[in-house]
């Protein structure tokens, strides 16, 4: 397992584009909350099935008829 250390900010998301959008916000002087919103908005586009109530779990339960 590799450990990463950042001295000025870090963004970890399930998709590289979401991480890049969060880092862009941080580089422009935005807050961690603003970076989180940018990352969440990007995840909504690149992984729509993982967004919303419960993410994938909600979709899986819905598909199973629960």
Automatic annotation (TrEMBL):
SUPFAM superfamilies: N-terminal nucleophile aminohydrolases (Ntn hydrolases)
Source organism, top-level taxon: Bacteria
GO molecular function: leukotriene C4 gamma-glutamyl transferase activity
EC number: 2.3.2.2
Keywords: Acyltransferase, Transferase
InterPro entries in the cross-refs: GGT-like_enzyme, Ntn_hydrolases_N
Transmembrane segments: none
Pfam families: G_glu_transpept
Protein name: Gamma-glutamyltransferase ywrD
Native species: Serratia rubidaea
Lineage: Bacteria, Pseudomonadati, Pseudomonadota, Gammaproteobacteria, Enterobacterales
